[in-house]
Amino acid sequence: MSIDINVYTNEISDDLIPAILEELNKFGMICEFPPDFSLESQSGFLPIRFRVPSSTFENMRDKDLVSGFELSVDDNEMDEDDGHSEEDQEKLKTYRKLVSFYFTGASDSFELRFASLTSAIIATLTHGALSDCDCKVLYDGASIMEAARDLIAGDSDLTWRELEYHEFEGWD
After folding, report:
1. Structural contact between residues 76 and 92, judged by C-beta atoms closer than 8 angstroms
2. d(Cα 97, Cα 10) in Å, to the nearest integer?
3. 81 forms bridges with which residues in the sheet?
4. Which of 45, 76, 117, 158 has the most CB atoms at less than 10 Å from its CB?
5. Dihedral, CA atoms, 115, 118, 11, 124, nearest 10 degrees?
6. Residue 159 has pLDDT above 60, yes or no
């Protein structure tokens, strides 16, 4: 399963990074981006180092883990045949930047969580819009965060045998 999520916004800057991490940490994780990470120039895989200190899975406690997703930031050049309704296309054209999140879901159990939450957080912090792979567009911050929470709700159903994760070995 692969998923694309797009955030349409007017401004995106590195000033958002501390606020993004603060919001991610509200979901029971301690997160960190690579030291050289920049929202203004990111294109490609974005690794996220994290810990889940209160994990119900003992084998994960006190371990530094890593997950991530593909992220790119570009100028918004709306394609007329992008699958959105005419009304949404008109609204989305007004945004200057497009932040794209892509993940395959094949690597680990946390990709969906991080792509969903990070995209929702950026859309909310920048008063932007979020569009999922079905071209459903959300414009309200509360609705965006609720959708992200719903999408990751399935995490709690995983057993320790189903849980796939990678231990952090460095930023290389």
Report:
1. yes
2. 5
3. none
4. 117
5. 120
6. no
Q: Cβ distance 146 to 130 under 8 Å?
A: no
Bridge partners, 45 (sequence order): 70
Report, in this order, helix, strand and coil percent for the chain, each rounded to 5: 30, 25, 45
Residue whose token pair is 């849980």 = 163
Do you know the residue count of the chain? 172
Helix (H, G, I), strand (E, B) or coil at 69: strand
Half-sphere exposure of 73 (CA within 13 A, CB side): 18
pLDDT digits (tens, 9 = 90+) for 67-110: 999 999 999 987 666 788 889 999 999 999 999 998 876 667 78
DSSP 94-111: T-SEEEEEEE-S-S-TTH
Higher pLDDT, 22 or 152: 22
Which two three-digit tokens encode residue 79?
């394609």
